[in-house]
Amino acid sequence: MSVDITLADLGSGDTSVALLDPAHVERIAATLDAAVPRPGEALPSLWHWAFFTPTTPTSGLGTDGHPLLSSAALAEYPRRMWGAGRVEWLQDLLVGAPAQRTSAVRSARHVSGSSGSLLIVVLEHEYRQHEVLCLREQQTLVYRNPPAERVALPVDGPPPAIPAGGWIEERRPTPALLFRFSAITFNTHRIHYDLPYALDAEGYPGLVVHGPLTAITLATYVERCTGRRLAAFEFKAAAPMFAGLRATSVCEPPDADGSSGSAQVVRNDGTVAMQAGYELRP
């Protein structure tokens, strides 16, 4: 069932401007153990998520660390997450120049899921520099009720097999990485850095890895494996991941014409935590 949701209900506006500041880009690179792009060079894939962040005053945050929202339509859904997304690059955003984002709500609907009633909101963003359209993006936000049961800590199982012609890489996201990523994205949701809160208030067995951090890690891995920049990247979060546990990026080789393929992140227990499709530039 559709519902009327506005950007104001979500604590956002329809237009925002951000300088792709080289100093902040250096902080992102330090957080991700990546090379630092210089002013005038391309902003690495998905790093724009560390810009255009909400600027809610601390006094305007709820007990979970998220900005308080006053919309009656969201009142019954106190938990929120970034469930899926798609980014298409028309050309690169460049470090050191201002960029503009325009946003719109494309749909909002109530659905029933395995964990109860959900509100699914789809946003669309366009990013421009010097009035030239550079990126198109779709974000799917999921608003839900608190879980009825505590989430169990995943138990280690065998790692995934290397796909034919493909690649795998194991990582263990650390609490320090999660804290830094929260800082560079101005994300105050306490499940990512406040262990007692994550355990006692939200029923998780550990600090929760950010979905966008997982997506950035996977997109970067695809580019490293294929040796090519992304033209588009589409992902869907399927299960939570936790600090300190094994997370394996799996990249399938591009298809026969070399233009697209799939990738995923597999938890330590064998559960697919994120599924993605990619398209490569020529």
Give your account of this protein's structure.
The protein is of the alpha+beta class. Helix content is 15%, strand content 33%. It has a ten-stranded antiparallel sheet with strand order 1-3-4-5-2-7-10-9-8-6, covered by helices on one side. Helix 1 runs antiparallel to helix 2. The radius of gyration is 19 Å and the shape is globular.
Average residue-wise pLDDT: 94
Counting copies of identical and different chains, the oligomeric state is: single chain
Poorly predicted regions: none
Helix content: 10-25%
Strand tally: 10
Major sheet size, sense and barrel closure: 10 strands, antiparallel
Radius of gyration, CA atoms, in whole angstroms = 19 Å
Q: Work out the helix count.
A: 4
Distance between the termini: 41 Å
Order of helices and strands: EHEEEEEHHHEEEE
- Please state the structural category: alpha+beta
Strand content: 25-35%
Q: Could you say which overall geometry the principal axes of the C-alpha atoms support?
A: globular
Strand order of the largest sheet: 1-3-4-5-2-7-10-9-8-6
Question: Quick recap of the structure?
Answer:
Helix content is 15%, strand content 33%. It contains 4 helices and 10 strands; from the N terminus they run βαβββββαααββββ.
Descriptive labels:
282 residues
